[in-house]
Amino acid sequence: MGSTDVNRRDLIKRATAAGLIAVPAMSALSACATSDGGSDNEVAKGQKTKDNPLGVNKDAGLDFVIFDGGFGTQYGKDAAKIYEKSYGKVELTATQKIRSVLQPRMVGGNPPDLIDNSGAEQMDAATLIAKDQLAELSPLLDAPSIDDPDTKVRDTLLPGTIEMGQYGDEKVWRLNYAYTVYGQWYSKKLLADNDWEYPRTWDEMLALCAKAKKKGIAGWSYAGQYPYYIPFTLYPFIGKIGGREVLDAIDNLEPGAWKHDAVKSAFEAYHELSAKGYILRGTPGLDHIQSQTQWTKGKCIFIPNGSWVENEAADTTPADFDMACGAVTGLDDSDKMPFGTLWAQAGEPFIVPAQAKNPAGGMELLRIMLSKESAQNFSRLVKSLTCVAGATDGMKMSPGLASSSQALKDAGDNVVNPRIFDWYQTLHKEQIGSVLAELLAGRMKPAEAMNKCQEYADRTARDDSVRKYKHA
């Protein structure tokens, strides 16, 4: 996996563009960085013992910032209480404004000890890594798990979890806690009440949308204000049509990747939803909560989303809604991958800043969260999987959680894992997202959208200030 070197001036330019730092704070950024990635303010390490394998200083306290989004914050609070039984007090701050709240602290060299780096204001991990702002997590991964001291933490995790924290080498810079299943979310009750079958091909999708339209129900809605939700189904759709290699080419910023026939077919299919009036009226102006609410009210059949949606939409979901995660509808029998293909991967990234005062404490709290007790608590509370293998065994699961678990099981090896969204966050969220918004709003034709996506990707590929990554 390759990368390009980035000098300090370029890093500062890129961080500024990504919203990580403000221009007047450049001197502060330089002041807070150290050659070994450590912090001058780091507390003294505690004694490593069987019960304290990371050497946490029990008098240090812990500063933890958690994202208050679809998963809520209770699971973090519960893990913090367990931490406090053995170590110092946890100061927990919940916010939806991760970048706004933490930007001054990251620049000033006094970041928290653990951050749930998620949401619309997620900090760009690639930029943080390039600026030596994150601690490498091998000490956590090589520590004994809480459930079995003879098993390392890394050996308790679901496949792909460690890889999601890697950026160009074997080092792991973040721990993605939730195991998210993305797909076409729908109500089984709505389909059953209307005697509708889940569509496996695009002709079946269009036929279903036509039937729904006659009943005043839209086929689709999505988070129009956050169009990067669209790829939750579009990327695996492209992969299903053309194979994993098409998604890899997109991730690798290869010339012409966005002009592949699979991309063309997928863009044309999604454009047809708009052209035929199968997208809920007003969708381009809706945020994620508003679009989900319209969906749970039965105003549309499908919404592209992740498995956090069951918890996030709980307040508006009818008791008999029977929420389900469906694998992406394919194009036809010529697809390279079978029906059941979906996008699933470890998500909800937790990071330990390199400048943290108590990085050992941050990793210890993560170790606690990776115990089966905490993992099951998370799944009970938020109706979503964690990255801990076997954590839900024997649990009674909610409809959405049971459905996403079954969808993942049914997919088998047919799980795709695009990385453009975290390797090149600005490209994915702001640029590709804006194109897809125009495409589904009917304001851009598929050919123009493909050209524009390729233009943005080529621009990123030429930008020497952007560190590059490639699939092995």
UniProtKB/TrEMBL annotation:
Compartmental location: Cell envelope
Entry annotated with the keyword Nucleotide-binding: no
Gene3D superfamilies: Periplasmic binding protein-like II
Keywords, ordered alphabetically: Signal, Transport
Domain of life: Bacteria
Keyword Membrane included in the entry's annotation: no
Protein family according to the UniProt entry: Belongs to the bacterial solute-binding protein 1 family.
PANTHER family: ARABINOSE-BINDING PROTEIN-RELATED, SN-GLYCEROL-3-PHOSPHATE-BINDING PERIPLASMIC PROTEIN UGPB
NCBIfam families found in the cross-reference section: chitin_NgcE
Protein name as catalogued: N-acetylglucosamine/diacetylchitobiose ABC transporter substrate-binding protein
Gene designation: ngcE
